[in-house]
Amino acid sequence: MNRDTAxxxxxxxxxxxxxxLVEAVLRIRAETGGTGAASRPVNGLPTIAVTxxxxxxxxxxxxxxxxxxxxxxxALYRTPGTQAAARLEALHARAAKxxxxxxxxxxxxxxxxxEALTRSFAGCDGVVLYNTANTSKAGKITNHGNDPVGGRAAxxxxxxxxxxxxxxxxxxxHVITLIFPTDKVTGIAEDDPPIPCPWWIDQKLRLSDFLRGxxxxxxxxxxxxxxxxxxxxxxxxxxxxxxxxxxxxKTMIRENNLPGVxxxxxxxxxxxxxxxxxxxxxxxxxxxxxxxxxxxxASSAHTGHELVELAEKGNRHGTRFRYRQFPRWLMxxxxxxxxxxxxxxxxxxxxxRDGNAYDFASNDDLADLERIHPRWSFExxxxxxxxxxxxxxxxx
Length: 396
Known about the structure:
The chain is of the alpha/beta class.
């Protein structure tokens, strides 16, 4: 089987499965006459623990779960006193004014400690389990090469600690994992190339099935590796969002410049963390639909050329943009001197023309997801970033 055929069949299967899951949710809503469970007092709501809650993605999950008003949320994190912890504390203060008790914060939770996780999961109905081998500050990724710092072992220590904690807490009936898209090519197409980041990608993709093998009910949400406004493979919009010191870490959209790390005609799936949070809530709300299922989401699917078209279409002043690909050779060179470039380099290689294919072949493929949640599209993100108000001849 050639690569294009293998990818096309896999993408068709993903769209069909998503459609079945979405329609199952809509049927339940129609039968119950609403969009979810009836309103209950806070102390009667199911409790969801979210690990790594100060992280970009898991913070958004905490925020979105709280906004639904359908869950008590237990935000677990390791280090107090950080800027990320302060953001979580501010969210807690806002939530406490409107719904006292709906959000509780638990610092000092070491993901490597079965004892700490056992205490943290006690009395919970569900857990969002986020595992990472990243042992350093944001923008200083040191573990995405050929397992240079024992990353595989670090991930498995976390996973085994979580397994012990989950088995010690039978009240936890549902776990959600968050992993990037599956490889649809390797071992199927005769012309498939090797994955350029083997240990990290392979390890993450195995976790959900490993947990299921331990008797744990896991829903795996496959979401893109590319986030809006989050890390070095995206775009900064202000200097305060820089997450490193290299030129790749300081990419910004401005007139005649829309940067990226992939070829301009490669289809890239993007995700906004708010969409991840919304779907986590839906999965927990409808366990009869999502238990032990893999589910694929994205906020948008566009090539670099299409991103330029959207930026120019949305701009109110006729400003022109141009897709500028960060040179792969320069990324490789910089990776010798700075770890922060390794992360986008590995993904650029994996998601390139000769590597993994994406979950969705086009933006139209995401229509079924919108039957449940309106997506945070690239157009919405451009508006939020202020790109639509960039005037010609003005440097940001």
